[in-house]
Amino acid sequence: MPKVKMPKKSPSLDMTPMVDLAFLLVTFFMLTTQFRPDEPVVVDSPSSISEKILPDKVMLITIDSTNRVFFNLEGKEIRTKMLNQMISKNHETFDEKSINQFALLGTFGMTVKELKEFLPMDELGRKDFMKKSKGIPYDSLNNQLGDWIRYGRLADAELKGPNVPKDKLLRFAIKGDGNANYTAIKRVIEVFQEMNVNRFNLVTTLEKNPNQ
Q: pTM here?
């Protein structure tokens, strides 16, 4: 009795749903992605052979070549809490739109009063404003840098609550330009110490280890 041969069929797969899904994902990311704002200052940091990586969650103080000081601590909630404390301390008033803009701002360097003028500006206006800014005051008579550090720590602690694991604690870092005056960097370190912060990282550019 002859064998019955089953007809061969090539499997087919309808890729239309996959293509639709891919386009939906691309559209979603295009609409929801927020680009990181440009840094207002370019810093040529000194080099070192340290390979330690700066953590993502860090309070970063930047000092440029003209000794201006800038501040950054990312996170919408923490920035909103921090700004509200600074507004109260300096007896200023910010509208809700400006507070929301600050939450997404990134690095900044100016007095609280100037910040109120700065936030409603467009991108070109902000760049021009930053060129004229003298940075955040950090002298003993008007130590707004110390206030930002204090309220940033308080906001972080309030959001995280008690019993925070060691690896989740807020970290602190100083990024100084190689041409910045030593006394300016020394003063920023003193401000940290006045705020009871005695452990922080110094940000450098990685260079080749001569012993390797």
A: 0.74
